[in-house]
Design goal:
FAD; ten-stranded mixed sheet; oxidoreductase; FAD/NAD(P)-binding domain; D-Amino Acid Oxidase, Chain A, domain 2; glycerol-3-phosphate dehydrogenase (quinone) activity; G3P_DH_FAD-dep; alpha+beta; Helicase, Ruva Protein, domain 3; eight-stranded mixed sheet; 505 residues
Length: 505
């Protein structure tokens, strides 16, 4: 293997989930030299296994996490402005279950939810009564409540932050594992490994944003004691055919005092989740259990007229949330707040990230840079609250962009224009590269995926495999057959062979 020595970076970030790319983006935008490494694909674990929501966390109020909820509520507004193509407002309906939570308690919680954080773009909460004949809910539900949160394409949120970090000068290395690191003379000596071999880099600061592996890396990769314990809480979801019409989601209360969402997903489906269970196995191999499947089906069937069986499940996904161990007996009550641990390792700064949630990644990144101000003595102030993410530049509206796509590219259907506009925003024009007809997009892999888009994802968004493209970049995996996936894999293999030949030359 080849060993290559690099110059000293200000920061090396380990982990390409939302917290890692968020910190890398913020740091690069302040003029720091940054390298981020991710052992797999961007957002390939926890950050793509969420409920696809930007939300304040209504149920966290019951656990008195007011600081977290206030911050998350404020961030909804910030993120809506930063990325309106991948984040959209969504109304949530909560059927009333008097024996679980009295109406006065829910109204009080929703009052705090409306006013605890700054709210400009989202509508407030209100009570509703159900039309029993037309309601998708079981007949016992006659009234409920409605409030606002947001839906998000979680994996694309990660990718867009990585793109923005790169555009500010950060180096993003996917499929690159950090084997170990040690401090020498106050500088981190970091050993990376990927398909090209070993690479040694140096850094003033090491940021451990390894998510489920945060504590393991401290112990095994750094030979240090972790300042906090980590609890892995598994959350699983099922995807079923569309349960109800309309674009509103439902939040279902259960007898165990947990809540489960039923969320409209990709127009044809309903996403049901999530669960909360302790997880003690390998985070690389987390998958839904039969107990979780039964739990989600039971909650759904208790609330909706349409009854589901296991045969209705199209697919499932699971992830583990790496939460800071607060010694809670109830997995659902473990804090979703984040903890930043800054430690000195023989004169070199190590910042480890414990916990966190998708909604507050940007504030977590700001807090991380604030922790490191004594190291870098940077005078730059937080910058990215008002900075749009890639694709939101000069975006009047997604609907307007869809119209422009269809006007400028002959033969594009409204559904394809919609997918492009929501995924790429105004960066779709870079993808299309002045092409004017769908016939110019190259090989058609099916379901609106053409070679032009695949090439763009490989060249600009670190995609390597069909899973990267179908599950995390486009969400087309629900439509592709095994044979169609094989054709795409063959195309990607040909690209890799060509790239390898060019590297050798």
């Amino acid at each position: 293997m080849n060993t290559q020595q690099q110059s000293i970076y200000d920061m090396v970030v380990i982990g390409g989930g939302i917290n890692g790319v968020g910190i890398a983006c913020d740091a690069a935008g302040r003029g720091l030299s940054v390298l981020l490494c991710e052992k797999d694909d961007l957002a390939s674990h926890t950050s793509s296994a969420s409920s696809k929501l930007i939300h304040g966390g209504l149920r966290y109020l019951e656990h008195k996490e007011f600081r977290l909820v206030r911050e998350a509520l404020a961030e909804r507004e910030v993120l809506l402005k930063k990325a309106p193509h991948i984040i959209r407002p969504m109304r949530f309906i909560m059927p009333h279950e008097p024996h679980l939570r009295p109406a006065w308690l829910i109204r009080t919680g929703l009052f705090f939810y409306d006013y605890l954080g700054k709210r400009e773009q989202l509508a407030g909460s209100n009570g509703i009564e159900f039309d029993l004949e037309n309601s998708p809910l079981a007949p016992r539900f006659t009234r409920g409540f409605e409030y606002s949160d947001c839906a998000v394409d979680d994996a694309r949120l990660v990718v867009l932050n990585a793109i923005q970090a790169r555009e500010h000068g950060a180096q993003i290395l996917t499929r690159t594992e950090c084997l170990n690191a040690y401090s020498k003379g106050g500088i981190w000596q970091v050993c990376l490994k990927n398909a090209k071999g070993l690479q040694n880099v140096q850094a003033k600061v090491l940021v451990n944003a390894a998510g489920p592996w945060v504590a393991d890396f401290i112990k095994q990769g750094l030979k240090q004691e972790s300042p906090y314990g980590i609890r892995l809480i598994q959350g699983s979801h099922i995807i079923v055919p569309k349960l109800f019409d309309g674009d509103k989601a439902f939040i279902m209360q259960n007898d165990d005092h947990r809540i489960v969402f039923a969320i409209p997903y990709l127009e044809q489906y309903t996403l049901i989740g999530t669960t909360d269970r302790e997880y003690n196995a390998d985070p690389n191999r987390v998958k839904i259990s039969q107990e979780e499947i039964d739990y989600l089906l039971d909650v759904s069937n208790d609330h909706f007229k349409t009854q589901l069986t296991q045969t209705d499940i199209i697919t499932t996904y699971s992830g583990v949330r790496p939460l800071c161990d607060d010694e809670s007996d109830n997995p659902a009550a473990v804090t979703r707040d984040y903890t930043l641990a800054l430690t000195d390792v023989e004169g070199a700064a190590l910042l480890s990230i414990f916990g966190g949630k998708l909604t507050t990644y940007r504030k977590l990144a700001e807090a991380a840079l604030d922790q490191l101000k004594t190291v870098f003595h940077h005078r730059s102030k937080p910058w990215n609250a008002d900075a749009t993410l890639p694709g939101a530049e000069n975006l009047e509206s997604v609907e307007q962009l869809m119209m422009e796509i269809q006007q400028k590219v002959r033969g594009v259907s409204s559904s394809l224009a919609s997918r492009w506009a929501h995924a790429y925003g105004t960066r779709v024009w870079i993808l299309l590269n002045h092409l004017t007809s769908i016939d110019e997009l190259g090989q058609n892999f099916g379901h609106g995926l053409y070679a032009q888009e695949v090439d763009y994802l490989v060249e600009q968004e670190w995609a390597r495999s069909s899973e990267d493209i179908l599950q995390r970049r486009t969400k087309l995996y629900l439509q592709f057959s095994a044979a169609e996936v094989d054709v795409l894999d063959e195309y990607l293999m040909a690209i890799r062979i060509k790239q390898k030949a060019q590297d050798v030359a």
